[in-house]
Design a protein that fits this description.
The protein has 196 residues and is α+β, with helices and mostly antiparallel strands. Helices cover 24% and strands 36% of the residues. It folds into two domains: 116 residues, Umud Fragment, subunit A; 40 residues, no CATH class. A hairpin with a 7-residue loop joins strand 3 and strand 4. The chain is elongated and about 85 Å long.
Length: 196
C-alpha cells in the first residue's frame, strides 16, 4: 500500500521539481543580467540637478562599459558611495587618472580653488549641482572599481492624484489605475503618471 501511495504522488513531485528548475533558471538569468549587463536604479535628491529630477528619476545603467574600463569624463555613472558602501550615488565623471583637476573647495562660501592630479586607478566625480553635492570635493578621488554602471536611459514621471470628478485630458494620461489604498477610496481616486 505504501508503494502505491508513493506512485500516486510521483507526477506531482516531478511537476514541482520542473517548476523549481524553471524558477531557478529565471532567477539566474535576472542575476546575470543585473550583475553584468544592466540594472535599474532610482535616484533622487538635489546633487544632480538639472540632469536628474529632484523628486526622483528611474535610471537604467549598463555595466559593460565600466567592466571594460570605457567610462570616462562627461559620463553620468552609478557609484558605490565611499562614505557608505551600502549606498549607491549618481555622479558625473569629471576627470580620470593622470588628469589635473581644479575645483572650488566650498562653492557656497567663496571661490577658493584647489588643484590636484587624479591618482592612477582613480576618477574624480562631481554632482552637476555644485552647491548641493557631496562628491570628490568632499571625499577625494575614488577608485575606478567602485563604478557600478554608466547611465544611459532615464524615465522622469510625475505622480498626481485627482478625484474622479475632475476631467482629465486623455492625451496627458500615460497610464492609470485605480488606487488600492482601501475599499472606500478605490472608486474615488485615479493615480496616473505623465512622462515629461
Amino acid at each position: 500500500m505504501g508503494a502505491e501511495y508513493l506512485r500516486q504522488f510521483k507526477p506531482f513531485v516531478k511537476e514541482a521539481f520542473q517548476q523549481i528548475l524553471r524558477v531557478g533558471k529565471y532567477l539566474c538569468c535576472i542575476h546575470v543580467t543585473n550583475t553584468y549587463l544592466c540594472t535599474f536604479t532610482y535616484a533622487l535628491g538635489p546633487s544632480m540637478l538639472p540632469t536628474i529630477n529632484l523628486t526622483g528619476t528611474l535610471l537604467l545603467a549598463e555595466r559593460v562599459s565600466t567592466l571594460l574600463g570605457k567610462a570616462g569624463p562627461g559620463d553620468v555613472v552609478l557609484v558605490r558611495s565611499p562614505e557608505n558602501p551600502r549606498k549607491f550615488i549618481t555622479k558625473r565623471i569629471i576627470a580620470k587618472e593622470g588628469d589635473t583637476v581644479t575645483y572650488l573647495v566650498n562653492p557656497k562660501e567663496g571661490d577658493q580653488e584647489n588643484s590636484l592630479i587624479v591618482p592612477k586607478g582613480h576618477i574624480w566625480i562631481e554632482g552637476d549641482n555644485k552647491y548641493n553635492s557631496s562628491d570628490s570635493r568632499n571625499f577625494g578621488s575614488v577608485p575606478y572599481g567602485v563604478l557600478q554602471g554608466k547611465l544611459f536611459w532615464k524615465v522622469e514621471y510625475e505622480w498626481k492624484c485627482y478625484s474622479t470628478e475632475v476631467e482629465l485630458d486623455p492625451s496627458e494620461v500615460m497610464h492609470h489605475e485605480y488606487g488600492l489604498v482601501n475599499k472606500k477610496w478605490k472608486e474615488s481616486l485615479i493615480f496616473y503618471s505623465k512622462v515629461n
